[in-house]
Structure to design on (331 residues):
């Protein structure tokens, strides 16, 4: 089975409205489309935040969610920044579990390479003209079976872009739709030039590596240190957080979070992209206007990147014991 990474309709999606004062009862809706006012703040002014996580079917048939509490906390942070009423961590987890449970038939089989992608989101609804917080909101969860965004462990190439996805003190660390709208031109430019994605630099100095279009960046040094960029405008990825834990606690590696100058790329023996959609993907080529750097270790099946990938995958699909609290069962 080779599923695309794309939307398809499933049995139901979750909707829960906030009427300006309180949350109404949430429910599963089978009708595919929403009906919202064309002057909704989400449509006109981008008052929208979302999350991305996956449900994994194990060999035992049980369906697992990976570190959902971290997604809940990040969602609340994003929602608050856009001045929307946040669900509680428990509301978030319950909504996701209910939606996945109702769509269990759509979770791809173990070993098929597929997963159920889960997209919780929050939008301002109801018509108004001023670009101010809406009075009404919708918290929803949509699920869809997907394959991987990039082929498993197949190396990718990146082009360093001149554009920024977010401002230095702006929305970069929040998972809001506007960041993705702002990335589209740069990503398209990289793809049209034959690269898999673009690599963003820090928006203040343009001297440091920030992140990939839809994934975080990490590098492995010759002395086996896991290095990942620190910056206020990077999305704090849960995959990256998990790799840092595995590297430090299980692989006995040093883990360093700090600004990573573009000039330092030469010092890495491996570089990779990590995220829910990207999983862990080795990078074999990074091009700037001046030069193209290559990373021959990207195709080595025994690389540190490949070992991190295998450990993470085995945790997610239930083949190995997870660190405490990382897995939530749906069935
Ligand atoms: N950076 C960006 C811009 C992303 O869209 C994502 C994907 O969610 C990530 C990083 C990785 O985050 P996570 O590992 O939580 O999926
Ligand atoms: C994810 O990895 O979950 C993302 O959000 C990336 C992209 C599909 C927006």
């Amino acid at each position: 089975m080779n599923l695309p990474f794309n939307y398809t309709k499933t049995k139901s999606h979750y909707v829960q409205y906030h009427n300006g004062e309180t949350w109404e009862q949430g429910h599963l809706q089978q009708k595919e489309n929403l009906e919202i006012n064309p002057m909704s703040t989400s449509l006109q002014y981008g008052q929208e935040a979302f999350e991305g996580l996956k449900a994994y079917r194990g060999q035992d048939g049980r369906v697992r969610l990976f570190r959902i509490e971290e997604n809940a906390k990040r969602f609340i942070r994003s929602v608050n920044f856009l001045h929307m009423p946040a669900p509680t961590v428990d509301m978030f987890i319950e909504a996701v579990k209910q939606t996945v449970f109702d769509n269990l038939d759509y979770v791809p089989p173990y070993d098929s390479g597929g997963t159920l992608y889960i997209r919780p989101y929050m939008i301002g609804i109801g018509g108004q003209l001023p670009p101010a917080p809406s009075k009404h909101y919708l918290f929803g969860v949509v699920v869809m079976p997907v394959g991987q965004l990039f082929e498993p462990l197949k190396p990718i190439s990146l082009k360093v872009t001149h554009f920024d996805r977010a401002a230095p003190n702006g929305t970069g660390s929040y998972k809001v739709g506007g960041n993705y709208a702002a990335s589209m031109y740069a990503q398209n430019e990289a793809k049209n030039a034959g690269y898999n994605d673009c690599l963003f630099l820090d928006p203040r100095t343009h001297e440091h590596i920030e992140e990939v279009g839809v994934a975080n960046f990490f590098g492995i040094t010759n002395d086996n240190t896991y290095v990942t960029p620190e910056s206020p405008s990077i999305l704090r990825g849960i995959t990256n957080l998990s790799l840092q834990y595995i590297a430090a606690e299980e692989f006995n590696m040093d883990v360093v979070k700090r600004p990573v100058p573009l000039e330092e790329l030469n010092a890495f023996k491996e570089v990779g992209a990590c995220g829910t959609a990207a999983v862990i993907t080795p990078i074999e080529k990074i091009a700037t206007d001046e030069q193209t750097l290559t990373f021959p270790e990207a195709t080595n099946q025994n690389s540190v990147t490949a070992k991190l990938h295998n450990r993470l995958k085995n945790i997610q699909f239930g083949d190995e014991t997870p660190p405490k609290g990382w897995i939530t069962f749906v069935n």
Observations:
- The two ends are 23 Å apart (CA to CA).
